[in-house]
Known about the structure:
- 23% of the residues lie in helices and 35% in strands.
- It has eleven helices and 28 strands.
- The chain has helices at 36-42, 61-71, 88-101, 119-134, 176-185, 199-209, 211-221, 235-239, 246-251, 272-278, 337-346, and strands at residues 2-8, 53-57, 77-81, 106-111, 115-116, 138-143, 154-157, 165-171, 188-198, 225-227, 230-232, 257-262, 266-267, 287-295, 301-312, 317-321, 326-330, 357-360, 363-371, 374-381, 389-391, 395-403, 406-410, 413-417, 422-425, 431-434, 441-449, 458-461.
- The strands form six sheets. The chain has a six-stranded antiparallel sheet with strand order 18-19-20-27-22-25, with no helix packed on it. It has a five-stranded mixed beta barrel with strand order 6-9-7-8-12.
- Helix 3 (88-101) packs across helix 6 (199-209), helix 3 (88-101) packs across helix 7 (211-221) and helix 6 crosses helix 7 (211-221).
- The chain is globular and about 75 Å long.
Amino acid sequence: MIFPCILSGGVGTRLWPLSRQDRPKQFLPLFNGRSLFQMTVDRVQGDAFARPIVIGNQNHRFLLGEQLQEMGVEADTILLEPIGRNTAAPAAMAAMIAEERDPEALVLLLPSDHMIKQVDVFQDAIRAAETAANEGQIVTFGINPSEPNTGYGYIRLAPSQTQVRPVEAFVEKPNRETAETFLAEGNYVWNAGIFLYSAKAMLAAFELHQPQMMTQLRAALATRSQDLDFTRIDEDMFAKVEDVSIDYAIMEKAENIACVPMAPQWDDLGSWSAIWSVLDKDERGNSGLGDSRFLNSENCLAYAGDGLVSVIGLSDVLVISTRDSVLVAHKDHAQDVKKIVEALNKEGRTETQFHPRSYKPWGYTERINAGDRFAVQSMMIKPGMKLSLQSHLHRAEHWVVVSGTLEITINDEVRLLTENQSAYVPLGARHTLHNPGRIPVRMIEVQSGTYLADDDIIRYEDQ
C-alpha cells in the first residue's frame, strides 16, 4: 500500500502579501475555491493509496483540519512540527509511521504547494516507479524541462531506455548559461522534490548515512501525544534534529537512487508570475482574481482581496491588493518579493506574519479597525462551537450579533442573543460564547481598554 505523506510546513514568502506565516500559500483558495493543499490531497485519493499522513506546522493545525474536513478526507496522521526542520526529518518520520501500519509500506513524499494539471500522467509515473520502490530503490520524480529555468535544481540522468532511470547526480540551481546547456544535452530534468520509497529502504538509508539524526528522530517520535485530531511531539527533542533537506541528507549520498521523468504540466507556483502562468486569461493575456478591471494592459495579474483593483496602460505587471497591504511589481522581478518580506521582518512589521483574518478552532476573527484604547473585529462562530470561559484584566467588550443565534454567558447569567441584539461585558467578568444553532453566528466585537493584546486573557474552561 502507498502511504501519501504531504509536507505542509512552508511559508511561501514570494507570494506575499497574500501568503503569510499564519496562512501560507498552500492554504489559499486561489483555484476555483480550492487550495494547493486540497488539490494535493485530492490527487492521492483512490484505492491505490492509504489515508494520507500530513506533516505540517503546529501553528497551521486548524487550517489543516478545516481544509481536510471541507474535502471529507480523514487523515491517517496529522503530525505537527513544533519547529521547521526542512524535508529530511519528515521523510524519515513518514517512513516510521507507515512501517507501523504495514512493514512493506511504500511512502509517496510530496510537497503541498505544487500544481499538477495532468493528474493521470502523474499517477502513471507513480505506477511506473512502484516496482522499483518495492525492490528497494528510492525513486525521485523529475520534470521534463520546457525552458532553461534557473529557479529549480536539476537531476542528471544516466543513459537508459527504461522508464525508471538511474541517477548520476543532483545539481544545484544553475545560472542561465548552464541551464541552457542542460536543456541542449537532454539528459537533465527538474528536481520536483517528490519521492516514492519503501519505508524499509528509507529507514535503512538513514541508519547508514544519518545515524545520529535517526537516533534523534526515533527519540522525538517516541514522545508522540494526541491533541484532538493532531499528533504532537516534544519541541525540545525535535529541536535536536538537524535542519537539512532530504536531497543533502540522503539522495546525494545513497547509491540506490532512481528517477522517473514525467511531464504532467507541473509547477511549484513559487512566485506571482508562476501563478499568472496557470490562470485563465483574457484576449490580452491578463488574469484577474477578485473584483479587477484591465484597460489597455496586457499580460498582467491583478488580485483584489478587498475592494476594486483597476490596471490601466501597463504590461507584465503584478498588482496584489489585500486589506492591509498592496504589492506592485514587474513580472521579471517576482522572485524579489522575498527581499521585501525579509526587510519588513527586520523592521518588525506584522504584515508578513498575520492576515487580518485569523482562523480559530471555533471559526475566525477578522480585524476591522484599531486605535488608541479600542479595537473592532468581526467574528464567525461555527455551529455547535464554543469559546473558552475567560476574563480580561484590562479591557471590556461589546458584542453585536449580525446573524444567527448566540448563547452568551457573562458571570452567572446565561441568555440568547439574536440578530441586532447586543451585550456588554465589563472588565474582569467571566464570559464565553456558544453557537447552539445550525448556521454560523456572525457578530461584531468592540474592545476598549488600556491594553488590548491577545495575552490579556485568563482561561478557566476550554473545549
